[in-house]
């Protein structure tokens, strides 16, 4: 996320984005009715408790606790997929009407066009650098790895869901690793939490939104705290369209001082960028298993006793006889 912060900080100043703040002093729409729910516990405390309890029960497993966690996870996914996600486009449509009524929409779209280009460029420069590292700076291997992951990337672009792209990504990763077992172990484990596209896109969009509303830029220390909480929150993300911004919204309010108008704007712009962010997520998920297996091989050279119990098959570029992604 600090890559996104650095790129956003430098890129927004290069684009002279600070001189184009949007005025919100025009006629404003107000809700016809409001539903106020009492907050039982703050988001920060709930996040830290959930993370700590998860670590505790992973070390000292308890069947009853696992059963409760699975049930709560099922209920949360049902709420997201059956209620919240279907209603999200209605919220976005209403907020677009609000922006148009307040004469903000046209200005926002004209301002955020260059921001989208900045986000995509940063995402692909960052991901390409890791593919170069994984290929040991061999252009032939670099193209080979990307060619194998391309079907999964296109699936992510069309479905806007990392979870929907996972079966195709599994096939691509199996070919890059020549080891189906490791691919099946690594890819499902990172599909929700290893979201490079969002980790770069959200910082840039948040800085752009802050400048859009004429607020001062957050200091690196403030943003580091926000980034740490966001990294923890990634463990609660569902790999569905807009899943990341849903989880990050309370953190934007708590740590970066976002108002409801700012939340609505960044949500609307994020959903426009989401297909490209999902493509970056899936592509980055394709390089992580390659880097992990190479690192594991290097570590087992230093710890041969552990290597004797490992059945790892390291990725071999020369073996190209495995099946093609379908």
Automatic annotation (TrEMBL):
Domain of life: Bacteria
Pfam families (alphabetical): SDF
Compositional bias of kind Polar residues: 313-326
Region of interest (Disordered), residue spans: 307-326
GO molecular function per UniProt: neutral L-amino acid:sodium symporter activity
Places the protein is found: Membrane
GO BP, sorted A to Z: serine transport
Stretches assigned to coiled coil: none
Entry keyword Chaperone: no
Transmembrane segments annotated in the record for this chain: 45-62, 74-97, 109-133, 145-170, 190-215, 222-248, 268-292
GO cellular component, one term: plasma membrane
Membrane topology field: Multi-pass membrane protein
Keyword terms: Membrane, Transmembrane, Transmembrane helix, Transport
Name this protein carries in UniProt: Uncharacterized protein
